[in-house]
Amino acid sequence: MSNEERKERGRAGREWAISEEAGFTSEQMSQRIVEGMDELFNTWKPREKFEFLKDTDFDQRVLNHKLIY
């Protein structure tokens, strides 16, 4: 490919990268981060801090096997 064709393709690639479709500019990327964080905080559901377990159920959740060293 010639120098001129390579430069033209590079220009076209740069124009696409800074367009709204790709959004590879720092302003567009930071705006997407802000929007994502806003969505996260609006839909956040915290986990419970603890859960109660019966000690009789404990044996059913343990895989019994021999330890090999």
The poorly predicted ranges are: none
Radius of gyration: 27 Å
Number of helices: 2
What percentage of amino acids are in beta strands? under 5%
Biggest beta sheet attributes: none
Whole-number mean pLDDT = 86
Percentage of helical residues? 40-55%
Q: SSE string, helix = H, strand = E?
A: HH
* Overall outline: elongated
Number of strands: 0
Please tell me about this protein's structure:
By secondary structure, the protein is mainly alpha-helical. It has one domain (3-61). The protein is 48% helix and 0% strand. The protein has helices at 3-17, 26-43. The chain starts with a helix and ends in a 26-residue tail after the last helix.
Descriptive labels:
mainly alpha
In short:
This protein is mainly alpha-helical and 69 residues long. It has helices spanning 3-17, 26-43. The chain starts with a helix and ends in a 26-residue tail after the last helix.
